[in-house]
Design a protein that fits this description.
Elements lengths: L2 H8 L3 H9 L6 H11 L26 H11 L4 H17 L1
Helix pairs in contact: 1-2
């Protein structure tokens, strides 16, 4: 999962996720649990030197529609992270209306 994808799930900026990953910012126990949930791993995954249990394969019968494929195609062509975050914000606000 990308930093941007994790940031979106956690409703953070990707820069904040980057700071957590690089150890530049402290991270709360609650946030560690949120990240573990988002990645479908146990919290101990982050604390064991060598985590030997394989990560679960995502279970999904989901097949994106043509509209979703088109949206994702165009979204992936946006290089500027602030522009990408603006698109996500717009989508989130439109979804909240319904």
């Amino acid at each position: 999962m990308s930093q941007e994808g994790l940031a979106e799930i956690l409703e953070l900026s990707y820069q904040q996720v980057q700071r957590y990953e690089n150890g530049r910012n402290k991270i709360s126990v609650e946030r560690i649990q949120d990240i573990a949930d988002a990645l479908s791993v146990p919290v101990m995954y982050f604390f064991e030197k060598e985590y030997t249990q394989p990560l679960p394969e995502p279970i999904s019968n989901y097949s994106p529609t043509e509209v979703e494929k088109t949206l994702l195609k165009h979204f992936n062509q946006i290089e500027s992270n602030p522009d990408r975050q603006a698109v996500v914000l717009i989508a989130r606000r439109l979804a909240a209306k319904h």
